[in-house]
């Protein structure tokens, strides 16, 4: 059996090696390392893939969020509502820009922002909501957009874990993540569903004026060369990464299908296990399984993880600490116990290996061992 990893980028690369290597070589031969045709072409292919009018590349997903907040004109003191159960990037850029993060609890089943908690958190200072489409499933965007409209707030989607996920509105309209708010931010970190060979990110919008502003902010606030109209940052996608992403983008749908297939295998194997809850499906969203995340009920999660580790099966906890209990983001407004759902999830969730290259032998070995542990517990 092949070694089991949380993410198997090596096997995935071997299948597209020739085309990727050729793309990289072309960039080296052209010496157009920053910006240049590969980046522009990738941006238009990415926009077309996502059904977005504009896709603006940048250096990473964290920058994408920061640039979006800068381009929307958010100012120190403005409040931004986001999920407490997510990767740190959102609150990090909020802090860097001097904005005030307002954390809210999540839905215990979908792990995504709880709309009623969002509405309760709105104040006169609120300027934006950042829904994170966690683990590959879209947040409750219809409700979030309704709240945003009611209070005149910007919506910044974080689709770093959900590129290719589709959401269906009540009236039947379908939209891909990144098109439901004012702006959508994604990451091409190697382990993401569309990953490059280093850092990369992109920002989606369907608003021409905002697109012009985003393009300027990522490139030192320039509109014309050496004319700086606003404060910007240096956040560009390397041409080599763009060349790799152009190849991988063509496979993204089949990569997401491979993840869904692995998820179905897990679901089926665990369907009669009351001690673990498999990921619930939110009926309005597809799931692209950036992670396959379960909840341990009544069993000791950490013992299960150590047991699996002894058998050569990696399992991870995304995320072990809620943002309000992180040292860097400690805040007198919040204390332990304020976010019961998030706090419980941090103690009970665990993620099994999830990637595009899992074969049946590996999946059987993983599920057999989980079931074996549950029988002993
Ligand atoms: C990965 C990730 C980011 C940040 O992306 P980087 O490219 O690593 O900066 C932001 N938000 C979420 C939810 C992520 O998973």
**What average pLDDT do the residues reach?**
97
Overall number of strands? 14
Q: Give the second-level CATH assignment, the architecture of the largest domain.
A: 3-Layer(aba) Sandwich
Distance between the termini: 27 Å
Shape field:
globular
**Based on the structure, what is the oligomeric state of the protein chains?**
single chain
What does this protein look like?
The protein has 2 domains: about 10-250, 3-Layer(aba) Sandwich (Aspartate Aminotransferase, domain 2); about 250-375, Alpha-Beta Complex (Aspartate Aminotransferase, domain 1), CATH 3.90.1150. It has helices at about 10-30, 35-50, 60-70, 90-95, 115-120, 140-150, 210-220, 240-250, 250-270, 300-310, 340-350, 360-375, and strands at about 55-60, 80-85, 100-105, 125-130, 155-160, 165-170, 175, 185, 200-205, 220-225, 225-230, 275, 290-295, 350. The protein is built from 12 helices and 14 strands. A hairpin with a 5-residue loop joins strand 6 and strand 7. It has about 375 residues and is an alpha/beta fold. It binds pyridoxal-5'-phosphate. Pyridoxal-5'-phosphate binds near residues 62, 132, 158 and 189.
Main attributes?
single chain, 377 residues, 15% strand, 3-stranded antiparallel β-sheet, 7-stranded mixed β-sheet, binds pyridoxal-5'-phosphate, globular, Aspartate Aminotransferase, domain 1, 2 domains, 12 helices, alpha/beta, Aspartate Aminotransferase, domain 2
């Amino acid at each position: 059996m092949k070694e089991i990893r949380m993410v198997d980028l090596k096997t995935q690369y071997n299948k597209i090696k020739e085309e990727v290597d050729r793309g990289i070589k072309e960039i080296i031969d052209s010496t157009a390392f920053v910006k240049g045709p590969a980046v522009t072409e990738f941006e238009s292919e990415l926009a077309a893939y996502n059904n977005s009018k504009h896709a603006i590349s940048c250096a990473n997903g964290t920058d994408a969020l920061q640039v979006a907040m800068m381009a929307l004109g958010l100012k120190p003191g403005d409040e931004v509502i986001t999920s407490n159960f997510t990767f740190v990037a959102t609150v990090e850029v909020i802090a860097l820009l001097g904005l005030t993060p307002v954390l809210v609890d999540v839905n215990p089943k979908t792990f995504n922002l709880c709309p009623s908690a969002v509405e309760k958190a709105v104040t006169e200072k609120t300027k934006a909501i950042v829904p994170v489409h966690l683990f590959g499933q879209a947040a409750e965007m219809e409700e979030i957009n309704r709240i945003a409209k009611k209070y005149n707030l910007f919506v910044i989607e974080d689709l770093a874990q959900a590129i290719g996920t589709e959401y269906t509105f009540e009236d039947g309209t379908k939209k891909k993540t990144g098109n439901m708010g004012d702006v959508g931010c994604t990451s091409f970190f190697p382990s993401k569903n569309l990953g490059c060979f280093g850092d990369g990110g992109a920002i989606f919008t369907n608003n021409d004026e905002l697109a012009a502003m985003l393009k300027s902010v990522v490139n030192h606030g320039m509109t014309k060369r050496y004319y700086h109209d606003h404060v910007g940052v240096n956040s560009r996608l390397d041409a080599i990464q763009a060349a790799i992403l152009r190849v991988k983008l063509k496979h993204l749908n089949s990569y997401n299908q491979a993840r869904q297939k692995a998820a179905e295998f897990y679901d089926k194997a665990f369907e009669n296990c009351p001690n673990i809850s498999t990921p619930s499906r939110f009926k309005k969203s597809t799931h692209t399984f950036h992670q396959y995340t379960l909840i341990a009920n009544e069993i000791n999660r950490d013992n299960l993880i150590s047991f699996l580790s002894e058998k050569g099966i990696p399992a991870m906890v995304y995320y072990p600490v809620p943002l309000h209990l992180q040292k860097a983001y400690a805040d007198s407004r919040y204390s332990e116990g304020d976010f019961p759902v998030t706090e419980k999830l941090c103690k009970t969730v665990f993620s099994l290996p999830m990637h595009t290259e899992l074969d049946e032998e590996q999946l059987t070995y993983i599920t057999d061992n989980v079931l074996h542990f549950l029988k002993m517990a």
